Amino acid sequence: MTNNNNKTVLVTGGTGFVAGWAIHDLLKQGYNVRTTVRSKEKGTYILNSLLNMEIDTESLSFYVADLTSDDGWKEAVTGVDYVLHIASPLTTGNQDDLDSFVRPARDGAIRVLREATKAGVERVVMTSSLAAATPDISNKDQHINENLWTDPNDKNLDAYRKSKAIAEKAAWNFMEEQNSKTTLTTILPGAIFGPVLYANVPSSIEVIRRLIQGKGLLGNPKIGFEIVDVRDLVDLHIRAMTNPQAAGQRYIASSGFMWMNDMAKFLKEELGEIGKNIPTRTIPDFVLRSAAKMNPSLGSLVPMLGRKFRYTSEKARTQLNWSPRPVKETVIDTAKKLEELKLI
Questions:
Q1: Who contacts 329 (Cβ-Cβ below 8 Å, separation ≥6)?
Q2: How far apart are CA 124 and CA 181, in angstroms?
Q3: Residue 199 CB: number of other CB atoms within 10 A?
């Protein structure tokens, strides 16, 4: 184990999928770890989960703070060397109401950055999203990098995607206005898969769980995912946190692309009896469009039908020596962990 006992890291949103793995890995690497939770009960839940995995939690502490309020943030960041701002506010807004998505994400990020700069934190690594680098629908570029930003006025994109770009841009603008030693780095993950740590299923993994259960549509829409393993994503956050070269940089976190139907066929082959209900035929686009009219939660998928943008994570691989595992390994590890925890 690396000895990082003199360094303290704050991880926001401790109960989340990515944050949970960040806490797990940082503790194993010898850091002092703080995490924010929305209640003391949630802190107890994290503690018990880590103890069950035989992780030493002596250097873990909890702070009650919510992205929608100033309360608790000053205390949480005082005396901290690094912040991994991974928390994303829960938004149940109308897909057409951009402000309901933008406000909590943007204001939450600024809240964390304001207190971090005041406290003299060395670096904040903020989790953004590939949604903040979505090209125009006519874009045929197969080598999209960190220079691209989502256009908030693009009528083909849903409020969630636009909000990610607006929130990240607001964070960069805020940091440019500060006379502070604190530096910012942002990480842009694609679809985050990988084994779950706690016995609940994050929304990003619902697609795999529903495939295995055979729920939903009678086949798979022509939708694909730029995939990153949660373990590799956390590794990239920690590399970006400590590498001087990462100051002021954006990094795309993707290990590869996979069509949903290819994922279904692969899982069916690998899982045997457990995968018997996985649908492996492609459904016409109009089926999803019709379903989205009755089920608004599917609406965000419609603009992505048939779209295959290829992002490059060359910058992270070159500058930070990041080496993510193959997509197929991530997909099968996700499914097997769901089975092990009896979540399918």
A1: 229
A2: 11
A3: 10
Residue 162 is encoded by which pair of tokens? 């636009």
Q: What is the pLDDT of residue 37?
A: 94
Residues composing the chain: 344
Residues 328, 267: Cα–Cα separation, whole Å = 9
CA dihedral 311, 312, 313, 317 (to 10 degrees): 170
What's the rounded Cα separation, in Å, for the pair 68 and 108?
A: 6
Contact 205, 193 (CB under 8 A): yes
First to last CA, the chain: 34
284-322 confidence digits (pLDDT tens): 988 888 888 887 667 667 777 887 778 999 999 999 999
Contact 60, 27 (CB under 8 A): yes
- CA dihedral of residues 18, 24, 25, 30 (deg, nearest 10): 140
Under 8 Å between Cβ of 2 and 32? no
E strand or H helix at 63 = strand 60-64
